[in-house]
Amino acid sequence: MSIINATAREANNCKLISGTFETLVQIGLGIIALSVLVLKRTYEKPQRPFQVWAYDASKQAIGAGVAHAANLFIAILLVKLAGSEDAQDECSFYFINFTLDTSLGVLLNWLLLRTTVAAALHFNWTWLQVPGFYGNPIQAKVWLTQLLSWIAIVLTAKLVIARAIYAFSSPLNAFGNWLFEPLSNYPKLELLFVMVACPCLMNALQFWVTDNFLKKPAAQDARLIVDEKTPLV
């Protein structure tokens, strides 16, 4: 009887990666998130040149893609580490991870970016001294350097958050199961809530805030801004 019950629970559990529907949901989430950056550029003043904005947006989009993949991996891994029959809902773990990512994660990313800028100024790494400045003329290799630095920052923040979730996995898992209990018999509806309904607002806010500290400041600080007339190499 317990085997039958376990099988029934497994069938109703929300899975992050299990078919076409789940894949389409995640693609939709990405499109919604990127549209925020397009909307932000439409209303920003002064408006960034298109190439600069494209570099800024692609840097954040790729970083967000890496973070999303990390969130999926962490949620699935935590479910496997939990090991109990009542703890096999990947979506609840993803929701907890995502919530921390869009709150504590944004703060960690900002602190790590500021630390990177400080280190770049100290060691004279000119390509990393001003986020969003890609040289004059614009150079793809500067963008690539900033992109790799940003990915390293995102992954470092994810490791910190994942470690915190793992340390408190039992109470967080219990909270997640309680929170999504009303949707326990509707795994696809739960997936839509976890991956679309809730993230729409939280992801939009995260992208908006992150774009502000990834782009070059409008008011240039003499301590941080490299003279745009001076070549970077």
Description:
The chain crosses the membrane at residues 23-40, 61-82, 94-113, 147-169, 189-209. Keywords: Membrane, Transmembrane, Transmembrane helix. It holds the Pfam family STIMATE. With 233 residues, the chain is mainly alpha-helical. It has one domain (2-214). It has helices spanning 2-12, 20-43, 50-82, 90-101, 104-123, 140-167, 169-179, 187-214. Helix 3 crosses helix 4 (90-101).
Strand content: under 5%
Amino-to-carboxy terminus distance: 71 Å
Report the mean per-residue pLDDT as an integer. 78
The low-confidence runs, each spanning 5 or more residues with pLDDT under 50, are 1-11, 221-233
List keywords for this structure.
disordered C terminus, globular, 8 helices, disordered N terminus, single chain, mainly alpha, 233 residues
Task: List the SSEs and their pairings.
Blueprint: H1 2-12, H2 20-43, H3 50-82, H4 90-101, H5 104-123, H6 140-167, H7 169-179, H8 187-214
Helix pairs in contact: 2-3, 2-8, 3-4, 3-6, 3-8, 4-6, 4-7, 4-8, 5-6
InterPro entries: STIMATE/YPL162C
Keywords: Membrane, Transmembrane, Transmembrane helix
Transmembrane segments: 23-40, 61-82, 94-113, 147-169, 189-209
